[in-house]
Design a protein that fits this description.
The chain is mostly helical. Helices cover 81% and strands 0% of the residues. It is built from 17 helices and no strands. Helix 4 packs across helix 14 and helix 5 packs antiparallel against helix 11. The radius of gyration is 19 Å and the shape is globular.
């Protein structure tokens, strides 16, 4: 009964919803860390402190298996896919940091929200995974919704120079890097399935463990050289929360990539924006504006459509 439930074709939907909720909590924890240790160091926290959680989760999966545990065959192709995802995920963060230094940062944020459409493009090119017609409609509607929610101030929105600025370029690069990272992680899951690993749970656990090890070594080495790691270790309490929830979110994302195509997963993952808005409005006791209600409605319509078509 349990194995049948875990193999259900629709199970990717609650897995993605959990990932989005965990990521919302992780983002909240990381925001409080940014002012204390800096943006790059706060980014490292999700990888470095998340690594032990990923390792424990993987060991628990093997301990709970009925048959004797067997390690999967990890090909160079698999490691290449995961490495590509890990590298571009860090690159996306760097692009966002560069955009934050620009005057038209709001424009960059808006354009970075085209990530889902770029995921569909890159997944088609690299993985030959093409969305259905309804899938395209769902992605466009959901993207319109999130763009409405993140539109820049009216002065920038009507300014041609703002949309043609370096900030706008950084926003597009950020969205592209996140999209390529998603395709890399999905490609790794597909390759591991080809090598014989049929469990999406183990596939997700191995992917997170390897990706976060790469990111911890790469980004951690850079930060250790530039400013040292002492501030991260001093803020260990909030870092544990951010790392733990970050690991939970990543494990769910990677598991979903092993269950479903990259474009549907990332489209449904946009529900994170809804969660973030609900949390912020709840904390600030603020009501939604007309534009926010429109954007939220478009997003929810797109998310319902992506679930129906899948």
């Amino acid at each position: 009964m349990l194995s049948a439930f875990l193999d259900s074709s629709w199970l990717w939907v609650p897995v993605v919803l959990f990932a989005a909720a965990a990521q919302t909590i992780r983002n909240t924890a990381q925001r409080s860390l940014t002012a204390e240790v800096g943006t790059l160091a706060a980014t490292l926290v999700r990888f470095l402190y998340g690594l032990p959680f990923a390792a424990v989760y993987l060991l628990a999966l093997y301990a709970l298996r009925d048959e004797a545990p067997a390690l999967p065959r990890l090909s160079w192709v698999y490691l290449g896919w995961i490495g590509m995802g890990a590298f571009f995920q860090v690159g996306a963060t760097a692009a966002l940091l560069l955009a934050m230094k620009q005057r038209n940062f709001a424009v960059a944020v808006t354009l970075s929200k085209t990530e889902v459409l770029q995921v569909a493009l890159f997944a088609g090119v690299f993985l030959h995974e093409l969305p259905t017609t309804l899938g395209w409609v769902a992605m466009v509607v959901a993207t319109l919704g999130v763009v409405v929610l993140s539109l820049p101030p009216r002065g920038q929105m009507l300014s041609l120079s703002a949309w043609a600025s370096r900030s706008a370029l950084y926003g597009l690069i950020c969205g592209a890097c996140f999209a390529i990272a998603t395709v890399g992680f999905r490609g790794g899951a597909v390759e591991l399935a080809r090598l014989g690993e049929t469990s999406p749970w183990l596939s997700g656990a191995w992917g997170v463990l390897i990706a976060q090890a790469m990111q911890s070594l790469g980004l951690g080495g850079w930060i250790a050289h530039r400013q040292g790691l002492a501030p991260i270790f001093r803020a260990w309490r909030i870092s544990l929360l951010a790392g733990g929830m970050g690991a939970a979110a990543s494990l769910a994302w990677f598991t979903a990539y092993a269950m479903q195509g990259a474009a549907p997963v990332r489209t449904l993952g946009m529900v994170e924006v809804v969660f973030s808005y609900l949390v912020s409005r709840r904390l600030l006791s603020e009501s939604f504006s007309r534009a926010e209600r429109l954007g939220m409605s478009l997003m929810l319509l797109g998310l319902v459509l992506i679930c129906v078509q899948a």
